[in-house]
Design brief:
The protein is an alpha+beta fold and 97 residues long. The chain contains two helices and five strands. A five-stranded antiparallel sheet has the order 1-2-3-4-5, covered by helices on one side. The model has no long low-confidence stretch (mean pLDDT 91).
């Protein structure tokens, strides 16, 4: 059974890949996770939404730190093993099936 929102905040804040920011927005949680890549100048920004029942990937961007640049890859996130790995960790932690 998925975790209630209050418990989900505690779980998300305790994950090894700790979200950079977790916010409660009305009856939902939003979590921003920054996942490093093999290139120290690149990372993924993953925005997740949790409503107490299901976890939704709202946005995924490939971020270049210097010079600043961002590519929205939300439509392709399921084809990216790094992003799917992060989503799987969060899904398991929140007990979403």
């Amino acid at each position: 059974m998925p975790l209630p929102l209050g418990e989900a905040v505690r779980i998300l804040e305790g994950l090894a890949n700790k979200p950079k920011h977790v916010a409660r927005v009305g009856d939902r949680l939003m979590a921003w996770i920054f996942e490093p890549t093999n290139d120290p100048n690149m990372e993924y920004e993953i925005v997740l939404e949790y409503d107490g029942i299901k976890l939704t990937v709202r946005k995924v961007c490939f971020v270049q730190i210097e010079p600043p640049a961002m590519s929205d890859i939300t439509d392709l996130w399921m084809q990216n093993p790094t992003v799917t790995g992060v989503v799987r960790i969060v899904t398991n932690a929140l007990e979403v099936r």
